[in-house]
């Protein structure tokens, strides 16, 4: 279960009541008294394998955090839940000095707690060296539900290369069999355009696995473009690959004099048009420079609004 879902489910299970200060989550259980703020934020070290209430100003970010982007709307929702319920699940820290801590896991909870205006948050203190910090951060990251296949593959690769884990050991750490780990790592051998397409959900993991079995990078890219242009199913792609269609696809779809629109450019155009019209916009490139743009609408009124935007001023 992802950290976001854990916080939401725990918050939903308890009657909501707004309180001042730190909320009534684990904070109340740890210290028991909200009046003794000076004691609660006392500048004293906490023993390893204990849970304590740690001032947020004493917590440094995890330098090995594999994720750099966090959805701001989701953080605001979590912050509101924390304002009402307090912290349900403590973050995990390691102590780096007197009154100095480094985050191991719980980046979203820490950021949301700052947004909620908390002075201190409950934290589990444990011992960890730099390699263990990286390993724990990566494994927590992998266990999230909203990671795409490329993010998972990159995390696996870091565990193998930076934590010196063999694929069998990695599988044990993340609860996956060796073949699953291998399939993810193989994705990183695909051309960058295909990796971007997988990351942006232009194609699925099934499409990517079929493309991996094609030896020629040019043929991989050609079939990838055909998948996007014709919206081919995974089964259809697998049939084409088994039938040796990689070379034929290259001949049919690749024209040296015809520019190919990069996937990243298509996604940027979709985002720009979606913001312009306030509706979802899909750009579908086709062969020979052709293609189509689809604008979604929810009602007749919404369609009229879009048509009004399209009218020349």
Automatic annotation (TrEMBL):
One GO location term (cellular component): chromosome
DNA-binding recorded as keyword: yes
Keyword field contains DNA-binding: yes
Domain ParB-like N-terminal residue range list: 52-142
SMART domains: ParB
Gene3D superfamilies on file: 1.10.10.2830, 3.90.1530.30
Highest rank taxon of the organism: Bacteria
Sections of the chain in a coiled coil: none
Molecular function per GO: DNA binding
Keywords recorded for this protein, A-Z: Chromosome partition, DNA-binding
Pfam families tied to this protein: HTH_ParB, ParB_C, ParB_N
A GO BP entry: positive regulation of sporulation resulting in formation of a cellular spore
PANTHER family associated with the record: CHROMOSOME-PARTITIONING PROTEIN PARB-RELATED (PTHR33375)
Protein family membership: Belongs to the ParB family.
Protein name per Swiss-Prot or TrEMBL: Chromosome partitioning protein, ParB family
């Amino acid at each position: 279960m992802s950290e976001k879902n854990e916080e939401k489910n725990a918050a939903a299970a308890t009657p909501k009541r707004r309180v001042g200060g730190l909320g009534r989550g684990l904070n109340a259980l740890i210290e028991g008294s909200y009046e003794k703020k000076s004691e609660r934020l006392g500048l004293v070290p906490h023993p390893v394998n204990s849970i304590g209430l740690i001032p947020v100003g004493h917590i440094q970010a995890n330098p090995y955090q594999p994720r750099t982007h966090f959805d701001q709307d989701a953080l605001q929702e979590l912050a509101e839940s924390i304002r009402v319920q307090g912290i349900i699940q403590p973050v995990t820290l390691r102590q780096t000095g007197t009154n100095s801590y480094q985050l191991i896991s719980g980046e979203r909870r820490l950021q949301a707690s700052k947004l909620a205006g908390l002075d201190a948050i409950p934290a589990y203190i444990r011992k960890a060296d730099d390699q263990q910090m990286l390993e724990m951060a990566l494994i927590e990251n992998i266990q999230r539900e909203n990671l795409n296949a490329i993010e998972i593959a990159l995390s696996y690769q870091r565990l193998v290369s930076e934590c010196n884990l063999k694929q069998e050991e990695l599988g044990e750490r993340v609860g996956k069999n060796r073949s699953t780990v291998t399939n993810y790592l193989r994705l990183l051998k695909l051309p960058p355009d295909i990796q971007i397409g997988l990351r942006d959900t232009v194609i699925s993991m099934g499409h990517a696995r079929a493309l991996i079995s094609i030896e020629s990078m040019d043929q991989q890219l050609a079939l990838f473009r055909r998948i996007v242009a014709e919206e081919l199913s995974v089964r259809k792609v697998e049939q084409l690959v088994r039938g040796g269609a990689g070379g034929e696809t290259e001949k049919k779809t690749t024209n040296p004099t015809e520019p190919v629109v990069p996937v990243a450019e298509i996604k940027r155009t979709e985002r720009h048009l979606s913001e312009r019209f306030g509706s979802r916009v899909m750009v579908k490139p086709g062969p020979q420079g052709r293609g189509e743009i689809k604008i979604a609408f929810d009602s007749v009124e919404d369609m009229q609004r879009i048509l009004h935007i399209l009218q020349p001023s």
